[in-house]
Specification:
With about 140 residues, the protein is an alpha+beta fold. Helices cover about 40% and strands about 40% of the residues. It folds into 2 domains: about 45 residues; about 70 residues, Beta Barrel (OB fold (Dihydrolipoamide Acetyltransferase, E2P)). The protein has a 5-stranded mixed β-barrel with strand order 1-2-3-6-5.
Amino acid sequence: MRRVVTALTVVVAVAAFGSLALAQTPAAKTAAKAHTAVVKTVKTAKTMSAIGTVASFDEATRMLMLKTRAGEKAFTLTPDAKLMAGAKAAMTADLVGKHAKVTYTEVEGKNVASHVAVAVARKTEAKKAETKEPAAKK
């Protein structure tokens, strides 16, 4: 008799827990599909670039406005965004008014910049500017 009761208890337990497991399966599959879609979106995010003159930069919000031929574009800099002036790191104060190339991706309709390269004046151009200034003062 004990064996019959034990066997019946096992059958009832398997049926009860089995139905719970089956009830959770579609939700788990949906969550897995959503996670896979997010991963694919991040991996397939297209990196783009824009070239223009930096119109403004707000330190607090890390918003950069770039004036391009097509108009002004707004970019949000990531916390680990690289700011470069030639081969050296640039300061945020050096950005405004400089010609720059911004590398970014579009995330949820916003331009998120990961790299900003500021143009550096060439040595020959700087020397020419120095020699022309004294002549203009006469």
